[in-house]
């Protein structure tokens, strides 16, 4: 068996029916199995699966419902799968006729990869739109038709850059494939996450760190059928909670710390700009100010650490600024650090932070403001040291301390 399509579902019989119908209609070479994990459904899903078992190479995994985590049933499906490649799709995702073959082809071109298939209609929530009635009445064509609404386009297509700042941020679990061996070796989805958001992104981030390339495959396309969802506010709340878990799990990874500081679609470019700005600033970072006698613990933002830092001094610096391991350095961009609240008596900031006096997205505060608020959180109070600050930095410090 080359490929296993894994679907985790709970009380979504009608949506699951559409997904299985699309898979049945697109069967052919290559052959694949379908693994459905029923996460404690009570809406007749079991009876629906009995009907499809006579027509599809279908295996069902029944899992007791133990909480709103999509990770556990997805992991159970991957463990039960027999294919070398597992493709995760959601209930309500309508797979195109060449879906399985396109995923296999993408992995043949890039063997050690995590592949995101195109998701059309990802943000459509209006089931009464005439387009969906057309889809219900006819089989999908091999390619999206020219007359399909532009609103169905996958917004990732023009933005995806596998060598860009954060390709893992665009690897969405509604249509995602990965070699089963690599998935299991990585530990699967994080079962500590619940609700909407970040379970797929965290997995992709972890896989990218293990060496898997991130690939976007427009030919492996699927339609995302509209269905009721939690409110945007609720989704953002659980997404932020899951992001904080990911950030903490990965030791305060700098690649993750910017997420709630800019617009989602601006993230990759903003991260790249932060990295470029730090590389430029690092060429002229000043030495830290002399430590006053009897001074307590200090955390220093934007200074070059000496060869032998004073005990109690901690330097916040991004990746690459310090070439060798340094016991007094916390690796972070300074927007969010893994340091605890009030873990220092004072935060000393350098005027070098003014290089970040620009908004990450229109309408957002300049990043230097975020850095200074982080300095206040960690140090309680701020001292400015070094030339080049001026009234602008003084005003920003006063605002952060207010």
Task: Show the helix and strand layout.
Layout: E1 3-9, H1 13-25, E2 33-39, H2 45-53, E3 58-63, H3 71-80, E4 85-90, E5 93-95, H4 99-109, E6 113-120, H5 130-137, E7 175-179, H6 180-185, H7 199-209, E8 213-224, H8 232-249, H9 267-282, E9 298-301, E10 313-317, E11 329-331, E12 346-349, H10 367-379, E13 382-384, H11 390-401
Parallel strand pairs: 1-2, 1-4, 2-3, 6-8, 9-10, 9-12, 10-11, 12-13
Antiparallel strand pairs: 4-7, 5-8, 6-7
Structure report:
With 402 residues, the chain is α/β, with parallel strands linked by helices. It folds into 2 domains: 3-250, Spore Coat Polysaccharide Biosynthesis Protein SpsA, Chain A, CATH 3.90.550.10; 285-401. It is built from 11 helices and 13 strands. The chain has helices spanning 13-25, 45-53, 71-80, 99-109, 130-137, 180-185, 199-209, 232-249, 267-282, 367-379, 390-401; strands at residues 3-9, 33-39, 58-63, 85-90, 93-95, 113-120, 175-179, 213-224, 298-301, 313-317, 329-331, 346-349, 382-384. It has an 8-stranded mixed beta sheet, with helices on both faces. Strands 11-10-9-12-13 form a 5-stranded parallel beta sheet, with helices on one face. Helix 10 (367-379) crosses helix 11. The model has no long low-confidence stretch (mean pLDDT 91).
């Amino acid at each position: 068996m080359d490929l296993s399509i894994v679907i985790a579902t709970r009380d979504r019989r009608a949506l699951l029916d559409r997904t299985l119908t699309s898979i049945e209609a697109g069967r052919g070479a290559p052959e694949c199995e379908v693994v459905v994990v029923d996460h404690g459904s009570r809406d007749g899903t079991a009876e629906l699966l009995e009907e499809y078992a006579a027509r599809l190479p279908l295996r069902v995994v029944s899992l007791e419902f133990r909480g709103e985590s999509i990770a556990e049933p997805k992991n159970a499906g991957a463990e039960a799968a027999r294919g070398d490649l597992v493709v995760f799709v959601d209930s309500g995702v309508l797979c195109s006729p060449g879906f399985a073959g396109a995923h296999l082809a993408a992995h043949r071109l890039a063997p050690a990869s995590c592949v995101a298939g195109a998701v059309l209609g990802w943000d459509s929530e209006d089931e009464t739109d005439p387009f969906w009635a057309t889809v219900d009445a006819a089989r999908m064509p091999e390619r999206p038709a020219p007359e399909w609404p532009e609103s169905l386009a996958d917004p990732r297509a023009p933005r995806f850059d596998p060598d860009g700042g954060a390709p893992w941020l665009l690897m969405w679990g509604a249509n995602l494939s990965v070699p089963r061996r690599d998935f299991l070796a990585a530990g699967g989805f994080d079962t500590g996450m619940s609700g909407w958001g970040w379970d797929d992104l965290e997995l992709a981030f972890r896989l990218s760190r293990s060496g898997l390339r991130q690939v976007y495959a427009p030919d492996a396309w699927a339609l995302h059928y509209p269905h009721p969802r939690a409110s945007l506010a609720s989704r953002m709340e659980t997404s932020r909670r899951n992001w904080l878990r990911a950030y903490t799990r990965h030791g305060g990874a700098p690649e993750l710390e910017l997420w709630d500081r800019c617009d989602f679609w601006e993230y990759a470019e903003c991260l790249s700009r932060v990295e470029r700005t730090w590389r430029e600033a690092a060429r002229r970072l000043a030495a830290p100010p002399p430590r006053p006698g009897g001074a307590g613990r200090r955390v220093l933002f934007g200074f070059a650490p000496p060869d032998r830092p004073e005990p109690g001094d901690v330097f916040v610096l991004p990746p690459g600024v310090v070439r060798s391991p340094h016991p007094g350095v916390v690796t972070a961009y300074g927007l969010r650090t893994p340091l605890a609240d009030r873990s220092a008596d004072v935060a000393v900031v350098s005027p070098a932070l003014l290089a970040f006096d620009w908004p990450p997205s229109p309408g957002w505060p300049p990043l230097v403001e975020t850095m200074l608020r982080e300095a206040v959180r960690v140090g309680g109070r701020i001292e400015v040291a070094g030339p080049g600050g001026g009234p602008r930095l003084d005003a920003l410090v006063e605002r952060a301390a207010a």
